Amino acid sequence: MAQAVLELPRRERNKREKRARIVAAAGALFSRRGFASTTTDEIAARAGVGAGTVFLYFPSKDDLLVAIFREQMDAVVEAAFASLPRRGTLLDEIVHVYGAMIEFHERDPVLARAFVKELLFVSEQNRASVFEFIDRLDERIAERIALRQARGDLDDAVRASLVAENCFALFIARLQKWLGLDGRLASHEHIERLREAFALQLRGLERGARR
C-alpha cells in the first residue's frame, strides 16, 4: 500500500506527459496535413505510443481537436487579459483581447481553419467545452463593459452581456473572412478593421447616444 502511494505521483506524471505528447503530435500533424487527412495511427506514431493508447486518452479526433483548441486558446486569452493596456479605453481593451486571438491564428492558419470548420460539428459534449470557452470570454468582456457602466462612463440601460456577444460575433465574422481571403491581408489590417467594427458597436453605449 505504501509503495503504491509512493508510485502514484510518478504514474500520474507519466500519464500527463503521455497525454501532452499526444496533443503535441496531433497539433503538429493537423497543422501540417490538415485535420481530415491526419489519422490516429499517424498521431500515435509521432507521439511514440500505441494507437490504442491514443484512444484511451481521446476517443476520437474531435476530442483531440477540442483539447488543442482549449489548451491553446485558453492560454492566449489568459495572457491577453493579464496584459490589458493600462489606462486604455474599453475599445483598446477589447481590441487587445481579440487582436491577440487573430495574431495567434495567423501563426497557424491551417489549424485555425480546422477550428472554424470543425468545432461546431463535434459531439455534444465537445461542443459544450467550446461554448464554455466562448461563454467565459463573453463574460470577461461583459465585466469590462459593466465596469465602465458602473463608473457612469457608459449607458447602463444596455445589457453588457449582449454587447459582449455582439463583439464575439464581429470577431468570428472577421476571422472567417481572413481565412477565406487566404491571408491576403495581414493580421494588423484585420485588427484595424475589427477596431472600426467594435467602435461602431460601442458607440451605442455612449452617454447621450440613445434617443
Key attributes of the depicted protein:
mainly alpha, Arc Repressor Mutant, subunit A, Tetracycline Repressor, domain 2, 2 domains, 9 helices, elongated
Short description:
With 211 residues, this protein is mostly helical. It folds into two domains: 1-58, Homeodomain-like (Arc Repressor Mutant, subunit A, Orthogonal Bundle); 60-211, Tetracycline Repressor, domain 2.
Polypeptide structure, described:
- By secondary structure, this protein is mainly alpha-helical.
- The chain has two domains: 1-58, Homeodomain-like (Arc Repressor Mutant, subunit A, Orthogonal Bundle); 60-211, Tetracycline Repressor, domain 2.
- Helix content is 77%, strand content 0%.
- The chain has nine helices and no strands.
- The radius of gyration is 21 Å and the shape is elongated.
- The model is unreliable at 1-6 (pLDDT under 50).
SSE topology sketch:
Layout: H1 2-33, H2 40-47, H3 51-57, H4 61-82, H5 90-107, H6 109-118, H7 124-151, H8 160-180, H9 187-203
Helix pairs in contact: 1-2, 1-4, 1-6, 2-3, 4-5, 4-7, 5-9, 7-8, 8-9
Distance between the termini: 73 Å
SSE sequence, one letter per element: HHHHHHHHH
Based on secondary structure, the structural category is: mainly alpha
The CATH superfamily of the largest domain bears the name Tetracycline Repressor, domain 2
The low-pLDDT segments are: 1-6
Task: Label the overall shape.
Answer: elongated
Mean pLDDT: 89
CATH fold descriptor of the largest domain: Tetracycline Repressor, domain 2
Taken as a percent bin, the fraction of beta residues is under 5%
| Count of DSSP-assigned helices | 9
CATH first level of the largest domain:
Mainly Alpha
The largest pleated sheet is described as: none
> Percent of residues in helical segments?
over 70%
The whole-angstrom Rg is: 21 Å
**Name of the CATH architecture of the largest domain:** Orthogonal Bundle
Please give the number of β-strands: 0
Number of domains: 2
